[in-house]
Amino acid sequence: MTTVERTFSVQLPPHQVLDYLKDFANAEEWDPGTVKCTQTSTGPVQVGSSWHNTSKIAGVTTELTYTLAELTAERVVFRGSNDSATTEDTITVRPAGNGTQLTYHAELNISGVMGKLAAPATKLLFEKLGRDTERQLTEVLNSRAAS
Questions:
Q1: DSSP string covering 39-107, please?
Q2: Whole-prediction pTM value?
Q3: Angle separating helix axes 112-146 and 14-21, nearest 10 degrees
Q4: Cα–Cα distance between 107 and 109 in angstroms, integer?
Q5: Which residues sit opposite 55 in a β-bridge?
Q6: ∠ CA(87), CA(32), CA(90), 5° rounding?
Q7: Where are the domains of the chain?
Q8: Cα(129)–Cα(3) distance, rounded to whole angstroms?
Q9: pLDDT tens-digit readout, 84-133
Q10: Could you tell me the strand order of the sheet in which 34-39 lies?
């Protein structure tokens, strides 16, 4: 399993951060790997809602189905899967002055022999993706606070 975690602050209040993040279709704006993300469930976004996500990382395109697994006043958890990988993204929010401190924790588990062979390279790639996600998510959320 490969993990990455980042903690950073934004200028948007926690309830607005969660309201934005709970809709995983917004990953098109804040996740540098996401190419397209479309809600596949019907009705309002709530625990159990699902999305079809297409990502392109290091030139490799992959598709996963994500589900909103948990939504509280302090965190949102998405679980994604396809035939060869599972992922869990947990974003915790806490008040910080007039804004929010976010902790973004992502876990990736690639199945089989390929997962074991690719683990060292995957960790390096995942660290870069974590840095890029922190930067992009900060920019997006701060721009929402400014408007």
A1: E-S-SS--TT-EEEEEEEETTEEEEEEEEEEEE-SSEEEEEEE-SSEEEEEEEEEEEETTEEEEEEEEE
A2: 0.89
A3: 130
A4: 7
A5: 34, 62
A6: 35
A7: 2-146
A8: 11
A9: 899 999 999 999 999 999 999 999 888 854 444 455 666 778 788 889 99
A10: 2-10, 99-110, 85-96, 75-81, 60-71, 50-57, 34-39
What's the CATH code, domain 2-146?
A: 3.30.530.20
In the block, tokens 């002055």 appear at 97
Q: Which helix (H) or strand (E) holds 5?
A: strand 2-10
Q: Is the C-alpha dihedral spanning 38, 118, 105, 99 positive or negative?
A: negative
Q: Mapping DSSP to helix (H, G, I), strand (E, B) and coil, where does residue 129 land? A: helix
Residue 118 token pair: 């690719």
CA–CA separation, 90 vs 103, rounded Å? 8
Per the listing, tokens 């599972």 go with: 86
Q: Is 74 left (phi over 0), alpha (psi -120 to 50) or beta?
A: alpha
pLDDT of residue 136: 95
Which residues are 89's β-sheet partners? 78, 106
The continuous run of DSSP H or E covering 111 comes out as: none
Specify whether the CB–CB gap between 16 and 93 falls below 8 A.
no
